[in-house]
Every structure is written in structure tokens, then in C-alpha cells.
């Protein structure tokens, strides 16, 4: 049986995975669903030296119909205590919104999310209460982030 011809649609959808698999990032995996090439299961290891160290965080990544003209939709499935990630797992990250460019790769997005775990930004929050805690009592916020990592990301 012959393979079906590659269409621009399948080529566009396979490119992010091909680039990612050809140059994997330590601590990040992205696996497409067999029945939907637009949907990826992602795992990001918590960066060393961060309150998320030792955690394995599950995310979902979806490539919209207009990808790469529109940014991928990414959200955390693992509960996390972070000022830039809300309780629904939505992420406040410039490259997913205003600074999106079709030239960016899935790899770049995932690296940016991993970097966000190393450097929370309470001045541009999505979770306001967490951001306030981070600003007013950073040591307690870091302690809570570690506790949540142990509880939800092991």
C-alpha cells in the first residue's frame, strides 16, 4: 500500500515535530496524538535551581487551523503555583500572544515556557494572587511552588 501524497497541510503540521525531533531539547518531550497531528502531549522537566526542580509538568499544545500564522495554543495540565500561569493552566507569555511570529518554532515556544519556570515574572501576572505573594513574600511563594511541585508534578 502506498503512502498518501503529502499535502501542504500535512507538511505544515509535520514540520514542527520534525524540527523538534531532529534537535531535541533536554528535559522537554512533545509527542503528537496518533489521531490528530495538531495536538501534542508535552512534558517539561522543572529546571534545576528553580522551585519546580524535580517536577514533570504535563502540557497540551494545539496547532490552530491558521498555524503558523497564529501561535500554538499551549496550557499546563499539571497544577502549578506560578504568577504567569493561571489555575486553568493558561500561560502569560509574549511569544504566545503579541510577539508571535510565523518564523518561531514549537521548539522555541517550549524553551520559552521552560525558561519562564526558571524566571517567574510577577510584574506581568496571569494569577494575580500568586503574583502578589511573589512580590510581598517571595520566600513563601517559592516554598509554596516547591510544595505544589512535590504534590502535583511527581
Automatic annotation (TrEMBL):
The active site is at 92 (glycyl thioester intermediate). Residues 8-154 form the UBC core domain. CDD domains: UBCc_UBE2N. SMART domains: UBCc. GO terms for molecular function: ATP binding; transferase activity. InterPro entries: UBC, UBQ-conjugating_AS, UBQ-conjugating_enzyme/RWD. Keywords: ATP-binding, Nucleotide-binding, Transferase, Ubl conjugation pathway. It comes from the Eukaryota. Pfam families: UQ_con (PF00179). The keyword Nucleotide-binding applies. Belongs to the ubiquitin-conjugating enzyme family. PANTHER family: UBIQUITIN-CONJUGATING ENZYME E2. This is UBC core domain-containing protein. It comes from Ogataea polymorpha.
